[in-house]
Structure formats: C-alpha cells, structure tokens
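Why should sequence recovery work at all? Because a backbone constrains its sequence more than one might expect. Tight turns favour small or flexible residues, buried strands favour hydrophobic ones, and helices have their own preferences. The token representation captures these environments compactly. In the example below, the structure is given first.
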C-alpha cells in the first residue's frame, strides 16, 4: 500500500508539472489584432515556460500557485499561424488566425440557435466560412470562481453553425463581409438568467442598492426545502391552470404565460454570480475587441434596479479585462404582448434602463421594437438583431460610413395644448413607415393619465396633442410591452421607446 501511495503521489506531481492551457486557447482559435494579447496557463510552481508565436518568444516562470502569464505584442491580421508553449512538456497549437474577436453573452435570445432562426436553414447551408471561428462555452453554474471552461474553437461550417448563437452568427458574418478580416466569436450565455448571475459577488456585496439581490437569494435558499415540497404537491393544479391560461392567451392572440416553475434554491440558474464564476471568469482576460449583449427579460420585474445593475455589469467587466472602455453593444428588448395597459409596463421600464445606459462611454443599443414576436418570448427573426448590432460596430468601432441608430428624443416642450418633441440631429431623417398616420404616442396632464394622441411629423420634430388633455405635461412613445409604433429613419431604423416624464412606474423600489 505504501508503494502504491508513492506511485500515486508521483503521478499527481507529474500531472501537475505539465504545462497546460485553458480551453479558450486551442488549435483553430482566433486572436485579436492590433492590441496586446495575454496568454496564460498552468504549470508546476516555479516552472519555466516559453511561449512562441510568429517572431515573438516570451519567457516566464509559474508562480507559487502554478499560474503563469505572458503578453504578446500587438498582432497583424492574417494566418494560419502556430503557437507553441514549452515547459517540462510542449504544446503546439495550429491553424490560428488573427483578426477581430467579440464576446457574445446574455440570456435565451442570445442563446437562440441559428438552426431555429426564421432563415436558419439557408443560413446554415451557406455557413462554410473558415475565416469565422466559433467558440461555444458550455453552461456551467458555480458558487466559486472557476479556472477553465468547457469548449473548443471550430471553423464556421454547416456542421457547427447550426448550434451557435443566431444573433452572434449574423453579427460576425456581417463584420467579416465588411472588414474582410478573420472574425472570432466567443459565445457564453444561458437562457432565463438575470444580470446579477453574470457579475462578481463582491460587486453585489459592496453596492447598497444591489445587496437586496443577495439577501433575497439567501432567504429563498433557506426556504427552499419547504417551498419545493409545496410546489410538487401543487404542480398538478398549477399545470391545469396554466393550460387554461394558455388557451385564453392563444384566443386573444397574446404571448403564452410562463409554465409553472420550481422555486429558486441551491443549484438554480438564478444563483447570484453563478454564470460569472463558471462561464465568464475563466476566459478573462482573453483579448477581445468588444462585447455584444442580449439580456434583460430576466430583470424586467426589477427594471428600475436595472438602471444601476446593468451599468455596474459593464464597468465591472471592463475593469476586470483591463483593456479600457472596450465597445459594449446591446439589444434593447423587443415587442412582446404581455401587458396591454400602455402606461404600466415593466418591459417599457427595462427598455428605458437600457436607454439610460447609453450614458456610459463606448456603448451602443440596437433597437428591436419592430422585430419581436408579440406571441413569443423568443422571436425567430434574429438576422436584423445581429445585423443592427453589426451596424453599430461597423460605424462606431471601425469607422464605416453606415447608418446605425435612429435619432433619440432631445427635448419635449409644452406649447399650448401640444407638446413638441425634438430629436437629435445625427444626420438621420425621420419618416412615418409606409407614409401612414404616425402611431405610438400618448400624452398626459398633471393627473398622469396617458391617452392616445395625435402626432404630426415635420422634419425631425413631432407635435403631439389630444382633445382629452387640455394642459399636457408629458409625452411617451412606444411605452408598452407590445406597442403599435411606426416612426423610423429613412434608412429603415426604428425610433426607440421614450418618455419625457420621470414619474415612478410599476417597478420603482423593487430590488
């Protein structure tokens, strides 16, 4: 037994001595051009490590914890190249390209696979694009910080693209078509997750207005045994009611209600920091150009808190990556028929929180109020979503002369019985879709009761009024879960929802 123990110890020591790279470094990968590129891994403590790429040769020594890291000087697009890592053993990675790398993250609408897209069959068939490289991070939930993820780099092809994020695919394809350089896409998302799942725990602990997230989670975890027992007992009755409510929703042409779901508890996808620990932390600080993000549905019931939560996520990611204020472009929630009352919409509030986040530098928002599916939380028309994100990147990050955003409301002034809304002058002229009557505006007086309004477009100014409101004080546009709205730019981009008032709404105070 003593000899066996010695052999096992020697085996463990040998395994620990091997130089190892995290999964995000592998053959077929794509490295970011024109900026420093960190390369890191694991080895025995104090082990010498040599990394070679093109004409760069870098030496380092693993620390007491066995971690090592070097940084390649900025690279020029091209390939394929090889990268070698030498310590007590050798690693040789091949077929490496250099170009533009983007991280795609969020919840289910980012996870939505290309093969399920409205044009997915054609897109997959035409996806033999070897200069686009894809990396899918396997879903992993963790209470502690992980060192690695499960996944591998693959050339974009019909056998791979179908399971990849549709939004990310359309984004990357448009970039590659325009820039003519290799594009790498790292996809790390999980359906149904809230933003706090993608943030470090210390950020939630240190912010007073975010601590309630952790307190609520602790309460839910403590109550879980009792709640799951009650849920299982009530599930048959809940299922019957859900089916009844679903049939009613179908008859009214509205989105289906959520299925009965088990209470939150240990191992649940809502674990604060769970996705950050298991699916994001291990790939930091892999060099990227920027991030595209599609999430918010999971925070709509606490939309007012999202004003603080979402900017905190962005600034935290940027700080951890150490690349400065890299581009962070995101999708504003689309239309969905969940709440018919136009002035009491949690989704409208969430869209407003997303709009307000544009105050952060180097951010951009793709408005999708016109390409959702009123009856489906997961609209299948993902191509315009990905391409609107790509338009932002091409214009803002790569300096292309391309329309990418409709003007936003600049000011709204009361003029007698009307309110005049002026929009930004960003070179984009406004128009009414198909030349019909302008729709989507509501107006209110001091009683805060909004009513449908008449709206007239002149240039980039809209005059709004209603005979029911003699002394207007506030105006809103597309302020509903599923608004009817038709204000666009002449280049076909929709004007996003907005309001001129700051009155507390349904989620104010909910944390």
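From this structural description, the recovered sequence reads:
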């Amino acid at each position: 037994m003593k000899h066996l123990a010695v052999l096992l110890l020697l085996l463990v020591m040998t395994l620990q001595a091997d130089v190892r790279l995290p999964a995000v470094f592998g053959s077929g990968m794509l490295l970011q051009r024109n900026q420093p590129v960190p390369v890191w891994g694991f080895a025995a403590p104090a082990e010498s490590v040599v990394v070679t790429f093109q004409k760069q040769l870098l030496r380092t020594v693993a620390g007491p914890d066995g971690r090592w890291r070097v940084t390649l000087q900025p690279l020029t697009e091209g390939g394929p190249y090889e990268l070698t890592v030498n310590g007590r053993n050798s690693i040789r990675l091949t077929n490496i390209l250099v170009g533009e790398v983007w991280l795609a993250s969020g919840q289910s609408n980012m996870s939505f696979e290309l093969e399920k897209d409205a044009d997915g069959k054609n897109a997959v068939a035409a996806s033999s694009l070897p200069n686009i490289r894809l990396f899918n991070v396997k879903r992993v939930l963790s209470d502690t910080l992980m060192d690695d993820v499960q996944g591998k780099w693959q050339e974009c092809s019909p056998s791979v693209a179908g399971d990849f994020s549709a939004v990310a695919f359309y984004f990357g394809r448009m970039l590659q078509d325009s820039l003519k350089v290799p594009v790498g896409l790292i996809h790390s998302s999980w359906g149904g997750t809230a933003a706090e799942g993608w943030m470090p725990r210390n950020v939630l602990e240190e912010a007073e207005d975010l601590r309630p997230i952790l307190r609520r989670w602790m309460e839910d975890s403590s109550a879980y045994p009792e709640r799951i027992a009650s849920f299982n007992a009530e599930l048959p009755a809940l299922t019957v009611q859900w089916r009844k409510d679903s049939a009613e929703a179908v008859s009214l042409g509205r989105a289906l209600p959520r299925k009965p779901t088990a209470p939150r508890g240990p191992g649940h996808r809502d674990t604060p920091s769970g996705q950050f620990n298991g699916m994001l932390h291990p790939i930091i600080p892999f060099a990227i150009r920027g991030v595209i993000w599609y999430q918010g549905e999971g925070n709509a019931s606490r939309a007012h808190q999202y004003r603080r939560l979402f900017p905190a996520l962005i600034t935290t990611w940027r700080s951890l990556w150490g690349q400065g204020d890299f581009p962070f472009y995101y999708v504003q929630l689309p239309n969905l028929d969940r709440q018919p009352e136009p002035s009491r919409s949690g989704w409208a509030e969430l869209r407003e929180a997303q709009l307000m986040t544009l105050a952060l530098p180097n951010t951009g928002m793709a408005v999708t109020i016109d390409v959702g599916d009123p009856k489906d939380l997961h609209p299948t028309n993902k191509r315009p979503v990905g391409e609107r994100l790509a338009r932002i990147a091409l214009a803002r990050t790569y300096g292309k002369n391309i329309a990418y955003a409709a003007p936003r409301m600049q000011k709204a002034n009361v003029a007698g019985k009307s309110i005049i809304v002026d929009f930004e002058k960003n070179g984009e002229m406004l128009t009414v879709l198909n030349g019909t009557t302008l729709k989507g505006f509501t107006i209110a007086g001091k009683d805060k009761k909004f009513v449908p309004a008449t709206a007239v477009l002149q240039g980039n100014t809209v005059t709004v009024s209603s005979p029911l409101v003699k002394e207007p004080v506030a105006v809103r546009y597309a302020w509903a879960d599923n608004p009817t709205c038709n204000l666009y730019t002449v280049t076909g981009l929709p004007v996003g929802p907005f309001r001129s008032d700051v009155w507390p709404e349904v989620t104010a105070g909910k944390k």
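A few observations help interpret the result. The two ends are 57 Å apart (CA to CA).
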